[in-house]
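EI: anyone free to look at a 260-residue chain?
SC: sure, send it
EI:
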Amino acid sequence: METKSLNEFEFNEFVKIINEISGIDLTDKKNTLSLKLSKFLLEHGFDNFQNFLLKLKVNQKLKQETLDFVTIGETYFLRELEQLKEAIYYIKSLEKSVRVLSAPCSTGEEVYSLAILASQNYVKDIDILGIDINSNVIEKAKLGKYQGRTLQRLSEIEKNKFFTREGEIYTINKSELCPCKFELCNVFEDKFLRLGKFDIIVSRNMMIYFNYDSKLKLMEHFYKILNNKGRLYIGNADLAPDIELFKKVFSSKGVYYEKI
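SC: here you go
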């Protein structure tokens, strides 16, 4: 296969498979993704697009590499800070051991932001799990090494307390934080439903990539792993479908969904 844009039929086939695997809707990405996808195929030794699609359906390694290719995690510390603060204040009010899920967690900034806020507000009995479909970002989250713009909203005091600096690299100081773990996981697979129960789910800027049916399925999965009265926080750009499983609550800090 030459390095050229895929035709409409080929790209639509690819979009359908990715949607079935991950819920991600790439329909509007043809112009930006098609040529890159052709290069991706060449790099993986495919000279026939149909052979690639056939192997994509059954080969776990190729499936993961393709998901890593189409998902790009880009975030920063203390993103949508007021919402994170509200989640922490709610956790503190529960006065019990609390489990929090960050899905997707990208390279870990959201998980560590929650942990930093928990430490600052003397919330101790909490553990946080971050999951993502992209194996590359999960490995970066586990390393906890950051530099540049992702740190721009942190104060110097926060950097000094919660990180160890070597040159321009800031490594998260896990000894100052509650337990933070990271795991490769697809929200639409059975493994997700076996993660256990959570009191809080933070899922920001994921639904923007999903079509309506995928959003419904996602909300159903969230419902299954949330404890009674558990809360779901979504991003400002996300649009969640109306569903009887959750009560939409408007607060001074924004919107959250409470399990009914």
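EI: Residues 8-22 form the longest helix (15 residues).
SC: 👍
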